Structures are given as C-alpha cells and as structure tokens.
Amino acid sequence: MDTKSIRMGLAVAVVGMALALAVGRHPAAMAQGQQMDPMMDRAMKNMQKVMMLKDMDSYVMSKQSTSVARGKQMFSDNGLGSNGMSCVACHPGGGTTGGEVPVPGMPMARLKIPTLKGAAATFPKFKAPNDAVVSLAQMDNNCINMFMMGKGLDVGGQQATDLAAYVTSLSAGDPMAPGKPTMTMVKPKM
C-alpha cells in the first residue's frame, strides 16, 4: 500500500473520530452512553494533528530518529547503573566484546555476552531470570539491574522506549524471530 492510500484511509478514520470527539464520545461508547477514555481522546487528537501535516513521513521519521538518538546516548551512559558500567562496556557499537560475565549470586555461572545486532527481532521471548516471556524493554532492565547494578527503567516510560528504539535500530533489516535465544549460559566446569 502506498503512502497516499494510507493517508486517505487514515483521513477517513480521523473524520469518524472527529465526529465522535465533537460529541465527546468514542463511537462504541456512544452506543452505551459512556464518556470517552481520556487516553483515547488524546490519541485521537494527536492523530488529527499528524494527519494535518503536509509531510507526515518526515514528521514520523523525525520523531523516530530523535527517540533512537536519545536511546543511543543512554546506551553509553554509565549513570544507568551504580557500578560505572554502561551498555557499551559489553556491547561496543551494539556488538559484543566476545567475553563472558558472571551471573550475580551464582559465582560459578557465566553468560556469554551476545551481540545486540539482530537481538531485538527475537523479542518477546522467555527469559529465565524473569521466569516469564519478556519484552525488549524488560530485557534492557535485566541488564541494567543484573550487570550494571542499577534501577530498571519504567517500562512504559519514554526512557525505556528510547533505549529499546536504539537497540531495535541495531536490528535494521533482520527478520523477526520471536523467542530465538540470543544468550548462552556457560556451564561451570566441575
């Protein structure tokens, strides 16, 4: 689908949403006599603003580039943790130093440091430290908590989004492979 078709489809949707806004209700909520959710109201107003732009593609790319740039800056920030490390310490240029890191609390266990190039395309996936399937932002927090000894970022916040945007930019062009392992535990020699 080309940009013109997408813009036309979005314009039709926005007109419908604008009519709903005019009466202060979401169409589905109108039928039930409910007020529109404030987040939905904000989202619809933002969508209207973007639709009125002459060059929507440039606007979107600018916002994306800004987020990636902030994430790249965070990636090099040794203030994310309390031990003076940054993401770059293990992942220079988004790659890997090729080494291993000790698993906190398990002196004999070590993890191979993976490259982050292509890693974002493997999320969401199961991670043992969480005993759950996690998002990329949650995995970023695992590294901040475990290896940088820092406080994790608010997963729904702008900083976590920016860091995930940068890590995702390292996977440009890689096919999606949710669940594909990217970290390998090195079994201790007994």
How would you describe this protein?
By secondary structure, the chain is mostly helical. It folds into two domains: 3-52; 70-186, Cytochrome Bc1 Complex, Chain D, domain 2 (Orthogonal Bundle), CATH 1.10.760. The protein contains seven helices and five strands, in the order αααααββββααβ. The strands form two sheets. It has a three-stranded antiparallel β-sheet, with no helix packed on it. α4 (56-75) packs across α7. The longest helix is centred in the N-terminal third of the chain and has 20 residues, at 3-22. It is elongated, with a radius of gyration of 21 Å. The mean pLDDT is 80.
List keywords for this structure.
190 residues, mainly alpha, Cytochrome Bc1 Complex, Chain D, domain 2, 2 domains, three-stranded antiparallel β-sheet, two-stranded antiparallel ribbon, elongated
Give a concise summary:
This protein has 190 residues and is mainly alpha-helical.
Q: Which helices and strands appear, and what pairs or packs with what?
A:
Blueprint: H1 3-22, H2 27-32, H3 38-51, H4 56-75, H5 87-90, E1 100-103, E2 106-112, E3 125-127, E4 132-134, H6 136-146, H7 158-169, E5 185-186
Antiparallel strand pairs: 1-2, 2-5, 3-4
